[in-house]
């Protein structure tokens, strides 16, 4: 009888150890199997990005998220990083999902970089090293327009970015974003040396990304629609014609939120 009790006790301990088995990140998996199954991507195809982050937090001990792009991803124009679209999104996810209360969205935005320059090692290597579960890539086409990058080179760079990150990080959810809408500004003429407007880059890359079947958020058009519905003038959301101010970044974060949390 004593031997049988000992066997039962050891079996129970073994089961608990399996539930709380350490993961490769130094965390521990959640014992709430039902909750994990509710956000398991294999059981819930097409799940929202936030659910995938919750799954990673419960199953791996933490969730990791990163953003890359140009200065409007870096946060130029905001009074503080907490006021950028990245910072506001981080706060919203932490508050809305208990499993993400310690989530940090790492910022790999680079001011002045085109989509071509986002392929440089100084940009890609830190992202690959951080191994994010979700990576948001802002297309940087404000700079592509101002620096006269041909559309063909723009499309090629996006293709190479997608190939790089999906190849090296096969479990990472990748989402492309357009930048915000702009007005006339000192950074470049309305029509560049190639005869192209900023919107030619926005709509060209939107079509290209949709053709590839990648996840995409047209921040540009959704912000314009959101501002119109709120009776807010676009210049009131920009610091210098390009970079959003705190209001502009808040609108951006509001636009992005449903894309992260609903199917």
From TrEMBL:
It comes from the Bacteria. CDD domains: SGNH_hydrolase. InterPro entries: Ester_Hydrolysis_Enzymes, SGNH_hydro, SGNH_hydro_sf. SUPFAM superfamilies: SGNH hydrolase (SSF52266). It holds the Pfam family Lipase_GDSL_2. Residues 69-251 form the SGNH hydrolase-type esterase domain. PANTHER family: THIOESTERASE 1/PROTEASE 1/LYSOPHOSPHOLIPASE L1. This is Lysophospholipase L1. It comes from Edaphobacillus lindanitolerans.
């Amino acid at each position: 009888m004593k031997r049988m009790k000992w066997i039962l006790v050891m079996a129970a301990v073994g089961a608990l150890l399996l539930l709380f088995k350490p993961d490769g990140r130094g965390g521990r998996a959640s014992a709430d199997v039902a909750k994990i199954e509710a956000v398991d991507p294999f059981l819930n195809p097409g799940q929202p990005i936030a659910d995938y982050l919750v799954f990673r937090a419960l199953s791996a001990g933490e969730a990791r998220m990163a953003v890359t792009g140009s200065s409007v991803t870096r946060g130029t124009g905001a009074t503080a990083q907490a006021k950028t679209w990245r910072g506001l999104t981080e706060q919203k996810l932490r508050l809305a999902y208990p499993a993400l209360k310690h989530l940090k969205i790492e910022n790999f935005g680079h001011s002045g970089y085109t989509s071509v320059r986002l392929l440089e090692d100084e940009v890609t290597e830190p992202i690959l090293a951080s191994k994010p579960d979700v990576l948001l890539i802002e297309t940087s086409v404000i700079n592509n327009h101002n620096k006269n990058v041909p559309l063909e080179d723009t499309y090629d760079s996006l293709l190479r970015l997608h190939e790089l990150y999906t190849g090296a990080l096969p479990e990472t959810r990748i989402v492309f974003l357009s930048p915000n809408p702009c007005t006339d500004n000192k950074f470049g003429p309305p029509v560049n040396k190639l005869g192209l407007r900023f919107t030619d880059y926005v709509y060209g890359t939107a079509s290209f990304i949709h053709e590839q079947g990648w996840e995409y958020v047209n921040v540009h058009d959704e912000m314009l629609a959101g501002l119109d519905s709120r009776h807010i003038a676009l210049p009131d959301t920009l610091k210098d014609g390009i970079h959003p101010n705190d209001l502009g970044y808040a609108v951006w974060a509001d636009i992005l939120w449903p894309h992260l949390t609903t199917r």
